[in-house]
Design brief:
The protein is mainly alpha-helical. Helices cover 76% and strands 6% of the residues. The protein contains 7 helices and 3 strands; from the N terminus they run ααβββααααα.
Length: 230
């Protein structure tokens, strides 16, 4: 198990670095005030209107960087630091979340696939670690055959989560691309403001990349254990 703890530790350190970098970038670009004077809420509402989307509401949600699009309720949920603020970071996040609403309206295939997997993955992710560690314990203390079966079930469930994390990547990158194209096409930001918004979204996307790579590395480690014991 030492190998697992080393991998988990490395993933944790990289994840913390990227997360802290994202927070520092958000704080830095929150000081870049928009010349157009629009808040995150106003930018989100304009992007929705410009894309012919009239059935999605923009609402405020508690927390920092808790922004998300809810396809079932059709709401763009903006954190308090984005909803009312008038800076490059808020503009980037608001437009990005509206990018997901545009994906939904246009039936973007990767978003549809991810949405269909959410119920299955949410259940699998809750039990995968228990099954994996339970299988390892059974293999070493009770029965190798039974333990291998339980371990394999856990690996399959964990693989679902890994697959989901990789499907998330094109969804997030596409939403950022839609956001940046709209911000530029509609002349919403000055060049300096646009650069700040683009850098913000790049660091946000990297958090998803780290999560996906980390999940894959962990999955391969468990597969290696299964193949070695099999």
């Amino acid at each position: 198990m030492m190998g697992y703890y080393i991998i988990a530790g490395l993933i944790f350190l990289v994840s913390m670095f990227v997360s802290n970098k994202l927070k520092s970038k958000f704080k830095e670009y929150s000081k870049v005030h928009l010349q157009n004077g629009m808040s995150g809420k106003e930018i989100a509402e304009k992007m929705l209107r410009d894309n012919g989307i009239n059935d999605v509401k923009v609402i405020s949600t508690p927390g920092m960087l808790s922004d998300h699009y809810n396809p079932s309720k059709k709401t763009v949920n903006l954190s308090e630091g984005v909803y009312s603020q008038r800076n490059a970071a808020a503009a980037a996040v608001a437009a990005h979340e509206c990018g997901h609403a545009v994906q939904h309206a246009k039936a973007y295939s990767w978003l549809q696939m991810r949405s269909k997997l959410v119920p299955v993955v949410s259940i699998a992710s809750k039990f995968s670690q228990w099954a994996i560690f339970g299988g390892l314990i059974l293999m070493s203390m009770v029965s190798v055959g039974v333990g291998q079966t339980v371990l394999l079930v856990g690996i399959i469930m964990f693989a679902m989560g890994t697959f989901f994390s990789f499907i998330t990547l094109p969804v997030e990158y596409d939403a950022s691309k839609r956001a940046l194209v709209w911000l530029e096409t509609e002349n919403m930001l000055t060049p300096a403001e646009h650069d700040a918004a683009e850098d913000s979204l790049k660091w946000a996307a990297r958090t998803y990349v780290v999560a996906a790579v980390g999940s894959l590395a962990t999955l391969l480690y468990f597969v290696g254990i299964f193949m070695g014991r099999d």
